[in-house]
Each structure stands twice: as structure tokens, then as C-alpha cells.
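ERR on first pass: missing label on line 2. Operator R.T. fixed the label and resubmitted. Corrected input:
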Amino acid sequence: MERYDVAVIGGGMVGTAIGYGCAERGARVIVLDEGDVALRAARGNFGLVWGQSKGDGMPAYGAWTRLSITLWPSLAERVSGFAGRDVCYSPVGGLTFCLSEQELAERRDFVHRRHNQGHGTVRIVDRRELLEMMPGCRLGPEVVGASYDPTDGHVDPLTLLRGLHAGLRAAGGVHLPGAPVVAIEPVGGEYRIARADGAAVMARRIVVAAGVATTRIAAMVGLDVPVRPVRGQNIVTERLAPILPKPASAIRQTGDGTIQIGVTSEDDGILETPTTTAALAKMAARAIRVLPPLASARMVRGWAALRPMTPDGFPAYAESATHPGCFVAVCHSGVTLAAVHAGPMAEAVMGGGMHALAAELHPDRFARMPIQHVPAI
Amino acid sequence: MSTDVDLLIVGAGPAGMAAAVTARSRGLTVLLLDENAGPGGQVHRGIEHRAAKDEQDADGAKLAAALRSSAVETRFRATLWAVEPGGKVFWSEEGAARSAVAGRILLCTGATERPLPIPGWTLPGVMTVGAAQIALKTAGLKPQGDVWIAGQGPLLWLYAKQAVEAGGRLAGIVDLSHGIPPAALRHLPRALMAPGYLLKGLAWQRRVKRAGVRVIHAEEIRAEGEGRLARIVVDGTEHAADLLLLHDGVVPNTQITRAIPGCAHDWDAVQACWKPRLDAWGNTTAEGVMVAGDGGGIGGARAAAHAGRLAALEAARALGRMTEDQRNAEAGTERLALNRQLAARPFLDALFPPRPVTAIPDETIICRCEEVTAGKVREAVTLGCLGSNQTKAFTRTGMGPCQGRVCGPVVHAVIAAARGVDPAQVDPFRTRFPTKPLTLGELAALAE
Amino acid sequence: MFQRSDPPDITITWDGRELPARSGESLATALLAAGVLSFRETPVSGAARGPLCLMGACFDCLVEVEGQQNVQACMTPVHPGLRAAPQHGVRDLPEVEAA
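pass 2 clean. output:
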């Protein structure tokens, strides 16, 4: 049986980043992955590298996010090289548009709270400043202002995923897709991981980064990590000439020129990913209020994905107390956090000790919370 | 839920027209949507505006006339883009999104041509044989000058025949088929039961050759030119060309059925395509959704009409307008006729297996929208992509405005070949609604 | 190339010049009949491209029609005086008319 230093369970944005980081640090890594139509949050990513809204009520998450943003330029350069294509990381500042005075007032309170929690880069900008920042931008008359964080930006999430996979491979890592993991058992200081297709590997360390399947698999290594699926739908238009210079929450122009519009939060516990016209219509309507010329833009694709959501919505990281060397990493910000996953988190998995910020995001906190919609997957 | 219409039919080709008329005659209210300007589908395209030249045209004219004299509500230039649970459908018409709730939905979306990606096929001047046939049927455009046809399959010869009969001139046909494979011969006896099918095919070939059209049997072809087609290179020999028409058979158009949750599809190894899993009446595995015609498996225009009528009878039964016994009694002759039409299929399918994708060079574009090459798709397989969907995420193949309609069959075949596995083990693109582009303004108008 | 069986009966404008067309046909066949094979340059590489399928599936025949960009020429019926032009790369969205 093949033996590895690290087996990562989950070939999505989180697992691949950690696996790549470990392989780059010299570990013999295998990333175990499901097949072609798995429930992949990595395919539903919006592509923001984003700090302004992250960590309200959990300052450690805010700081962990800011750390990742500082590490992003270096990750972007390496990943673009592996992907053979520019990952299009552009830290040009990010916006959250407000479409009424009331939305702006609420956003102002939010920004105030963020400042008190140590996130000082975000601020409120009014319509005049928005237009100065983005000359000629055809903002709709309802746009009264926005929150703005100059450290925010965006990236092509699918090139990122591909680049992480290519980087994993370039560093000698192995990707084994095709079937879910069904059992993990300790064998003489190592772990035997068995898959539904009969394949099995041995590893000294394990990272459970299995998205919406995290609860089921983390339980195999003695970790209680409740995760429920929250569906997000996306819209992408035809390629357009530049029309929106800065990315915003739920609307951005990609490096390819398409406009991506997000994104719903459907918390119904259903493990399926159809699009629904009602949701797409609402998303389109709001996008048009932000940028009225979009009314004539053609939608060419819609899709949905399931985000793995913890009870408080924040990430969870831990090493198992009962199964030493076994880690869990779950979040729904796999793009923003890719740089800390490939960096400090990979170091922790290699035995370097959990980063202090990640340590504050231990899933033990969920034991004190009401838990809903734990999926049976 | 109350419904707006008993039966909603998508596609006014032979299956859709026949189904609509039959369903209406059994008392069902019927709404028939089609994206084209009038009835006919691709096979009978523009049938109301041209003289019937052969049996096929006569069939189409008859179906269209019956549709027009029925009380079926027809909407042309109407593009369906979503089917949701509970019979809810959405379409675009005259720049506005509309919706209706139907008791039953019958998808008669026909076939699309299997792409034949050769080096240079993205040059202006390279089109499909189906496209040239549409140009002939709808606008009377006939080939003239250095026009070449390349590929294989019945439609290739039918078009060549129609073109020369219309006074068109062809420089030549590059036949990429491989003669009669031994596997095909065992289907020959049954094929001979099908009325006139095989004889017709041979007659088309004779007619084309009699017109002096040169036929070259070849292994390889590529298209070349600067900004437009200038020449083709056939097994190393150059020929001047200003138009090249490609064809490699047709496959079911499953763009809509693949987007419907719970609608199972199976790999058809003989026709080398995915098709929705149907019972004998055209019911899919998704409640209330039916398929008839080539969209459920390639059978041709006449088979499609029979399947459409059978589906209409089943819809009438499902909606309580006839008993099972009545349905079965009325279906008898239709089913016999359908089986006769399908008798030649196994032979034809075995005769024209699709061109192997291993013949596609790495640098050849297979996704025309996003300009993704075969090599990029193969590279994605080495990165661990097992199927079309992960490959799409890694390469952007299938992400453009055609939504994978053109590249889908080839991407699937290239992945299967690169992995060295049975194509049945490779997932096709999962499609999602809306299955045709629509403006955000149209979509937003549906928001409460 | 292609030759018409029936004479054209109307005139359309393509990229500023007048072309003959026949009522009832699509913009795509009108262009093909006039010897126009290249309809656009792609937004990805800028390569010249013309129609492939003529049945609304391939989205390769995108052109500008009456100021609207990225319109499928094969799904657009011609009418006398129709103004069309090649699609050059990505689409530019028109200004929104004041309500």
C-alpha cells in the first residue's frame, strides 16, 4: 500500500491549498478527491479576496483573513506560474454597494463595528467619491454609496484551483480522484484511509477538508465539526468591455470581461444544486440597480454550489485530541484563505504547531451553540 | 397547482408537430414553442415556404398543414430556457421572458451535429453540412466554386444529393468513413426490413457521383488560410477551397434534459452519445417530463413523428383523458410503424461510428467559444479531471455562450480516450438553466 | 461559396455598404450569399470567425444588429434597410435610455 506523509481528504479549494503547501515544504502528499459531479463549493466560488466583511463577531477570523491577504501576492505569482495562465489577482480595492440611505446607514454601523474589532482599512464612501474612484462608471441612480476597503480584491477562482492542483503535482504531490472516503483507522502510529472504490492509502498525517462532507469524515478522527450546506447561485454574462473597475460584494467584472453576479444564501439543508429562476431574477434585478446598462447584457451561464457552513459561519481548524496528526479545516472562504492554507496551515499540518489565530477557531466552540441542519453526508 | 395548459411541447419538428396534433385531437390544450420562424424543425426547415421536392418534404408539409389546421396554440421565435419542478416553464419571446405551468411537458428538441474538429475548423468558410442544408432549405443557397464536403454519415450524402439537384456545384467529397465495419453486417438483415432506407442511401451516393463530384477516401484533413479558408490539405495533398462543410453524424440534443434534476441519462455505446432514459412512451425519470424524437435517441424524422404521437397518447392517459386500455389500443399501429422505422438504425449506427478523437491533434481547438484546445483538455485529465465538469472548471471548455452545445460530445470523448476508459464512465457536462442566453433585463422582470 | 437560386428583393447594410438580401431569409444567409464569410473577431484571441451551424446553437455568427451587439445572425430575419456590422471582440453595452 502507498504511504504518504500527509493525506488530504478533499480536492477543493481548501484541501488542495493545504496539500500544495505541504508538498512545497517537502512532504509526500496525496489529495483524495471525489468524482466529476461531487458537491464542490470550489466550483461555486465568487472569486473575491476579501476582508471587509470577514470576522464580525470573531476578531481572530478577521485577523486570519488579513494575514491571508498579505500573503496573497506571493501565492498569486506562484499559482499563475503553475496554472500556465494569469490567476488575475487584482487587489484594486473592493466595494459593497448601498442602494438606499437605509442600506448606507446600516453599512455605516457595520463599518464602525469592524473598526472596533480591529479592521481599520474599511470605510464608507459616498456616491461622489465612488464616481471619482471609478470615473465614467455608469452607476445607477440608486447607488448612494458603498463601503470600501483598499486591501480587498479579486481573482479568477477556477484558475486558482487549477493552479493549486498543478502546484501540488509540480511539488511531487499526488491527486487521486474518484471516490469518497469511507473509513479511517489508526495502524501502528499511522492511519489507513479506505475509499468507497476499494482503494486505500497509509498516511502519517491527515487533513479533513471535505467541504459539506466534513462532519461525516471528521467524526472518523474524533472531531465533532457540524457543517451544513448553504446553497449559493451565480450568474455569468457574456464578455463585456470594461464596465466595473472594482469588484464588489455580489458583482464583479472578471479578468475575462464577464460580469459575475452572486450570490444567494439558501439554507434549506437540501444537498442539490439546481438553479432557480426566482433567485436568478432577484440577483439580476439588484445587479441592474447597481449598473443599469447590464439590463441588456446576456446571461450565458448560471450555476449553484453548496458552501460548507459551520453553526456560527466562521471557519474551523483543529488537530484531533484522540487521533494525533489528524486535522480538520473547513470554511466557505477558500479563495481568500488560500494563502494562509498554503502557508501557516500547511506548516501546522507538518508539525509546526497551529497558528495562534487558527487555534482560536477551534470547533469546540460549537458545543456551546444550538446546531441545526446537520446533513447526513 | 392549477395549470395554464395540459401539454407544453418544445420543438416543432416532426415529433413536436405530430404530438401536438394528436394531443389536441384527444382534447388536450396544447402550447407548442419553437425558436424558429415556423414549423418544421431542422429536417423540414422552411417547409411552408418551399415546394416539396421529395418524400421527406411531403411528410413535413403534411405535418405542418395538420398543425396549422389544428387548434394547437403555437409560438414561434420562442426560446425555452428553463423547466422547473411542478411543470413550470420559462421562455423568451420578442425580448421578454414568459412562463406557464403545464400538466405535462414534452421535449422534442431533436438532434445536433456531432462536431468534427479538424485543424483549422475555426476559420471563416468552414461550416457544418447541416448549416449548408439549412442555407439551401431556407434561402435557396447552393454551393458554387471550391466547395468541399468532408466527414461521414447519411446526412452528408443527402445534402450532396440535394445540392447537385438544386444545380449546385461541389469540388469534391472527402469521405472519412472506413467502409463497412464487420460489426455492421450482423445488423444488415434487420435493416433490410426498413422500407427503402438503405436503397435510398445508395441512391444518394450514385446521384452525387453521376453529377461528376469527386470522392476522395482519406484519413486526415485540415483547413488552412489567413483569416479565412483558402485550402484544404487531404492526406498531404492541397486543394483550393473557399468553403468546407463538415459532418460526423448527429447526436440527441440533451441540453434541456441534462439540466432537469432527476432526469437520468444513459450512454448509448452504438450511437456514441448520451440520451435520456425513456420508457416505451417517452416518459423520462423526471415526473411529468417526456421526450420524443431524435432528442431521445437518433431515429430519423419518420420515427420521430410516430414517437411524438405515442407520447401524446401517453400524456392524454396521464392527464386522465383516456384509459390505459384506450391508449394501448390507439398506439398499436403507431408502435408497429415506429419499430419498422427503427429497424435500419443499428446497421446505420454501426456503419458510421464517430471518427476517433485520438485523431485530433493537441493544438486543435475543440471549444470554439473559449478557444480551448484538445491538448488543454488532455492536460486537465493528467491533473486529475475524471469528467467533463471538472475539466470545464479547469480549462473553461464549455463555458462560453454555446454552453457546451458544440464541444460537449468531443470534450467527453477526448477525456474518455485520454483516461483510456469506457465513455459511459465519463460524466457529460451538467447543464443548468437558463439553457439559452437571455438578457439580465428579461430575467429581472420576473423578480417580484 | 454560395449562389442564390432566387433573386434578392431587398437591400440591407453591412459594415456601411449595401448588400442584396431576400425577404424571409436570415441575416446570416444574406451575408453568406454576398460572399461575407467572416462575421466577427472573437473576444478571446481576436481571430476571425464566421457561422458554423446556422441553427442557433453555436453562437459563432455573432454580429451587431441595429446597434445591439453579440446578436446571432442566423436567428435574425432580414428586413429592408436592416443595418448590421461585424462584432469586434467583447461587447460594449449601450447607454440606458432615460426613463
